[in-house]
Amino acid sequence: MPDYDLITVLGPTASGKTRCAVAVAYELDTEIISADSRQVYRGMTLGTGKDLKDYTVNGKQIPYHLIDITEPGHKYNVFEYQRDFLNAYNSVKEKGKLPVLCGGTGMYIESVLKGYKLVLVPENPELRSRLSGKSLEELTIMLRKYKTLHNSTDVDTVKRAIRAIEIAEYYATDDCPRREFPPLKSLIIGLDIDRESRRRKITARLHQRLDEGMTDEVKTLLSNGIKPEELIYYGLEYKYLTLYITGQLTYKEMYDQLEIAIHQFAKRQMTWFRGMERKGFVIHWVKDAEEAIKLIEKERS
């Protein structure tokens, strides 16, 4: 496609973005680069919604990158993501193909589309000590005061919020980020799903994943030596299922709290994408893959 370095397909959880991106990649005979902060982990499949079967269209496997690339327990970050994205991007471009970036982690998407090369932020024990004892709500309010790229959409535990503030504070006091990342021009496609449909899909998908063995997936991770606090750090499904398995929540409490948390997460994702639009990113909102492909065909003509 003329003028574009890649196509981006974004959207909140349960919006159908993966199927849309796969349909686009099939149409263009290309490959997908994931932009999901939790799908990087091996063995975390149902809880992160990898839906790997969706990457096959008419018997053809669509190649994907940055899924299942690191071990659970590791705290993968945007610094590593930019490095890994660039490697994947270059490998797809070397084949003469137009990469499709797909995901719901707004900070990862924005970090590569904005072209910022971030630096690895060291831990700040003094700051951590000051923040210990504060609630997630208090920490989230503090985080909003920073002008930062760090991903508040994924901050759903106290530990992640403290780390986000640590990163934000570092960028506020140090001369960074530095513009070293290659500028990329992307056609950005957003999956537009109304609130009620999204809520229904989230609830249905949660039921489905629990039926498919999501609880056993978390039990396996724990039995493989991943500490409960490490799984809780990843939030959402891993947080609440770990609390249930370790006896801190009943099944009903786990389900009810998890369902609410996923709805809140989807809302925060949409807030991030609207924020990108306010910053000047042009997002073309579509209902489905068919609309997305029509948009691409129009851009190509």
TrEMBL record:
A GO MF label: ATP binding
EC numbers, comma separated: 2.5.1.75
UniProt cofactor(s): Mg(2+)
Any one of the GO BP annotations: tRNA modification
Enzyme class, broadest EC rank: transferase
Catalytic activity: adenosine(37) in tRNA + dimethylallyl diphosphate = N(6)-dimethylallyladenosine(37) in tRNA + diphosphate
Keyword list, A-Z: ATP-binding, Magnesium, Nucleotide-binding, Transferase, tRNA processing
Family (UniProt): Belongs to the IPP transferase family.
Protein name from the UniProt record: tRNA dimethylallyltransferase
Native organism: termite gut metagenome
